[in-house]
């Protein structure tokens, strides 16, 4: 695996993306029913639960940050209907995985400072359970840390990616290996080792999904972001490979931009050029389905070349 030698900024990564002429083969907006006029975005990838195919999505009013994580069931034709018999959690940006036989559902919990209703505090929290109707809260991350993701490795241990902040370098990606979920807590999360050469100063990103590859490497789905001179946000979907044994990574690459998706609505004008990776479904034909929140207002799916195949060769 080629390892990262030099950190590349968004401009350089976009140039590489353009030069490789990567494309989406189809793009479509997902439609959600049962949540009135509320927006649904920053979704998980679809997953099987019994006989149903489900997605968990972030649901909120257009002018609000008060979000709920809601389960939706596929009924075909890109239509997803709210599961009224499933729990609703007050979380932003939900994610889901399995450890042993238990589902792990996490997301970002927010609260407002008592003396400043315009200032939001947040942390990542985790629920678990064999049954999605009986999830129990069992862990939480440090204050002001989003984008904590985990996966169970083949030896039973737990790989965790974190997003610590550094006052000099902005956001970073960290990683740690836990023996079990019992060790998932703020104290251990803050001990994560930092990956090298991920972001330049004033740009940031994080991990959105983790996938075990056929050769023992880990495929990482993430995002990279920056502000422009006018204060507008720009988010792009990314991928890289991670070697658990050495802590090395491959160079980060952009795999999708807002232009790869259909036109649509947006929450605010500064969020037009934003996609937030939710999850990816790899297929046997060399393609993959990428699920993203788009412009903080909608959820879309595109078909792309599987970004992880190159790491398995």
List the helices and strands and how they pair.
Blueprint: H1 10-19, E1 26-29, E2 31-33, E3 39-41, E4 47-49, E5 52-60, E6 68-74, E7 79-82, E8 92-99, E9 102-113, E10 116-129, E11 136-140, E12 149-152, E13 158-162, E14 165-166, E15 170-171, E16 174-178, H2 186-189, E17 193-194, E18 203-212, E19 218-227, E20 233-242, E21 253-256, E22 275-282, E23 287-294, E24 298-305, H3 309-312
Parallel strand pairs: 2-7
Antiparallel strand pairs: 1-24, 3-5, 4-5, 5-6, 6-7, 8-9, 9-10, 10-11, 12-13, 13-16, 14-15, 16-17, 18-19, 19-20, 20-21, 22-23, 23-24
How many distinct domains? 1
Please name the CATH topology: Tachylectin-2, Chain A
Number of helices: 3
What class do helices, strands and sheet pairing give?
mainly beta
Shape designation: globular
What can you see in these coordinates?
This protein is mostly beta strands and 313 residues long. The chain has a single domain (10-312), classed as Glycosyl hydrolase domain, family 43 (Tachylectin-2, Chain A), CATH 2.115.10.20. 6% of the residues lie in helices and 48% in strands. The chain contains 3 helices and 24 strands. Strands 2, 3, 4, 5, 6 and 7 form a 6-stranded mixed sheet that branches. The longest helix has 10 residues, at 10-19. The model has no long low-confidence stretch (mean pLDDT 94).
């Amino acid at each position: 695996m080629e390892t990262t030698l030099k950190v590349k900024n968004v401009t350089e990564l976009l140039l590489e993306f353009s030069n490789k002429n990567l494309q989406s083969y189809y793009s479509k907006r997902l439609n959600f029913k049962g949540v009135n006029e509320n927006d649904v975005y920053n979704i998980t990838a679809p997953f099987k639960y019994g006989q149903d195919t489900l997605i968990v999505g972030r649901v909120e009013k257009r002018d609000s940050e008060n979000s709920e994580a809601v389960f939706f069931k596929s009924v075909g034709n890109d239509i997803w209907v709210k599961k009224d018999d499933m729990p609703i959690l007050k979380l932003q940006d939900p994610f889901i995985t399995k450890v042993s036989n238990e589902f792990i559902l996490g997301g970002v919990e927010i609260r407002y400072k008592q003396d400043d209703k315009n200032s939001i505090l947040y942390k990542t929290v985790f629920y678990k359970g064999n049954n999605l109707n009986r999830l129990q809260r069992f862990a939480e991350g440090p204050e002001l840390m989003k984008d904590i993701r985990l996966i169970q490795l083949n030896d039973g241990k737990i790989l965790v990616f974190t997003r610590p902040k550094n006052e000099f370098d902005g956001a970073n990606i960290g990683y740690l290996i836990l023996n079990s979920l019992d060790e998932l807590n703020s104290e251990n999360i803050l001990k994560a080792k930092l990956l090298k050469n991920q972001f330049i100063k004033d740009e940031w990103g994080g991990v959105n999904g983790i996938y075990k590859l056929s050769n023992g490497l880990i495929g990482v789905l993430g995002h990279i972001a920056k502000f422009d001179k006018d204060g507008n946000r720009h988010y792009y979907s990314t991928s890289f490979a991670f070697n658990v044994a050495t802590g090395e990574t491959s160079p980060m690459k952009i795999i999708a931009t807002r232009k790869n998706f259909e036109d649509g609505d947006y929450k605010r004008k500064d969020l037009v050029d934003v996609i937030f990776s939710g999850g990816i479904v790899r297929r046997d034909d060399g393609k993959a389905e990428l699920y993203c929140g788009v412009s903080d207002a909608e959820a879309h799916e595109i078909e792309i070349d599987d970004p992880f195949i190159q790491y398995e060769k």
